[in-house]
Design brief:
This protein is an alpha/beta fold and about 375 residues long. It folds into 2 domains: about 140 residues, no CATH class; about 180 residues, Spore Coat Polysaccharide Biosynthesis Protein SpsA, Chain A (Alpha-Beta Complex). Helices cover about 50% and strands about 15% of the residues. It is built from 13 helices and 12 strands. The strands form 3 sheets. Strands 3-2-1-4-8-6-9 form a 7-stranded mixed β-sheet, sandwiched between helices. The protein has a 3-stranded mixed β-sheet with strand order 5-10-7. It is globular and about 75 Å long.
Length: about 375
């Protein structure tokens, strides 16, 4: 009897989670409506001068094309692109030098930037921030693929005072490998819906996503600037901006991200790092993710019921219903984010969920992480040593 009560509570929580994912995804993206596009030749946008800063570490599959796209923006104000590299032997340097030669009036390249803290990415950004000429700032990851309207789309809500900080989500809509597909299914069907649920529960977004963070230099200074010894620094920067009174908003356009050629072990170590980062940044909220894996519980009990026919019929029915709800929720997520090609990888969705459950469970304890080949430890509030 007690076991059945616990199963009922777990299933109810998982069902509510899937319903919340569907509701918040549809409410935010409104896929039945035409996409909102920032108007061209907007005076406020054109008058805003922007410093776009991109820290580089290594080469991704489409690196040259992605980086050149930052330099080909239209319908926006004057802007500069600052690329920074810590390692003077980084294989990306020749490509960036060619890009700099192609866009000499727009691109500045900074090489051999010794780390100032445990977070090498933010350390590199700190150098670029010191060299930036403009007061409007965009921090962007190097593995995103942007359109020619990227700066205009990001800057429009800022200059019109709809928000003080703009951040962006990201997915790979057409992954080429199984590992890339598993990574992208997580981002589209789990990560972004969870962000939207947090946005609803918190009465607004209270953190940022590192793929893109756009804000005014004054907003950054009021939040305490960059922190160079912290994991999940993008999340923490958004949290500090919100505490300082800034309004953070998620751009409705989901960026295209290059998921690269990482293997399953690299995927696991990266997602375990994310899991432990979330735990140290969100505290006990992390453990409520117990209700995010309804399909895993449902699949497990379906298998158990096949092996042991004595399992009550209602448990089998609800287990099957949870798996169906998961596929419905994932289908709606792909539709809402214009990621329909991801549905070709749905036969792997339950495997994706099992990987997520495993990394969440292991992430419930421990503070060791592997970050670009470096073994680090997370301390309270996300500090790393």
């Amino acid at each position: 009897m007690i076991v059945e009560i616990l199963i009922s509570a777990l299933f109810a929580g998982c069902g509510l989670f899937y319903i919340a994912c569907i509701w918040t995804t549809l409410d935010f993206f409104k896929p039945w409506q035409p996409k909102k596009i920032a108007p061209t030749h907007d005076r406020a946008v054109i008058s805003a001068s922007v410093s776009l800063m991109v820290p580089i570490c290594g080469l991704d599959d489409r690196a040259a094309r992605n980086w050149e796209a930052f330099c080909q923006q239209i319908d926006c104000g004057s802007y500069e692109v600052l690329f920074g590299i810590a390692d003077p032997q980084d294989p990306a340097i020749p490509i960036l030098q060619r890009i700099q030669a192609t866009y000499p009036d727009r691109v500045r390249l900074f090489i051999d930037l010794p780390p100032r803290g445990a977070n090498y990415k933010d350390s590199t950004l700190s150098y670029l921030l010191e060299a930036a000429h403009h007061t409007w700032l965009i921090f962007a990851d190097s593995d995103i693929s942007v359109t020619p309207h990227y700066i205009r789309q990001v800057m429009y809500p800022l200059v019109h005072h709809h928000a003080n900080v703009i951040t962006c989500a990201f997915i790979a809509r057409q992954p080429k490998t199984l590992t890339s597909a598993i990574a992208s299914l997580n981002r589209c069907c789990d990560f972004i819906p969870s962000v939207l649920i947090a946005r609803k529960l918190d009465g607004g977004l209270r953190f940022a996503i590192g793929m893109t963070i756009a804000l005014h230099r004054d907003t950054l200074e009021q939040a305490g600037g960059l922190h160079l010894d912290r994991i999940g620094s993008d999340y923490n920067l958004g949290k500090r901006c919100a505490r300082a009174g800034a309004k953070i908003e998620l751009l409705s356009s989901v960026l295209e991200s290059d998921t690269g050629n990482e293997n399953l072990y690299q995927l696991y170590t990266r997602e375990l790092r994310w899991s432990r980062t979330i735990r140290f940044n969100r505290g006990n909220t992390y453990y409520t993710m117990l209700f995010c894996f309804g399909s895993v519980y449902g699949l497990t009990l379906i298998i158990v019921s096949l092996l042991y026919p004595g399992v009550p019929l209602w448990i089998r029915q609800v287990s099957f219903g949870l798996v169906l709800m998961r596929y419905l929720q994932a289908t709606i997520a792909c539709w809402a984010m214009d990621a329909s090609p991801l549905r070709n990888w749905f036969p792997w969705l339950l495997a994706r969920d099992c990987v997520s459950f495993m990394t969440w469970l292991i992430g419930c304890w421990g503070n060791d992480i592997l970050w670009r080949g470096r073994h680090l430890k997370i301390e309270p509030d996300g500090m790393v040593t």
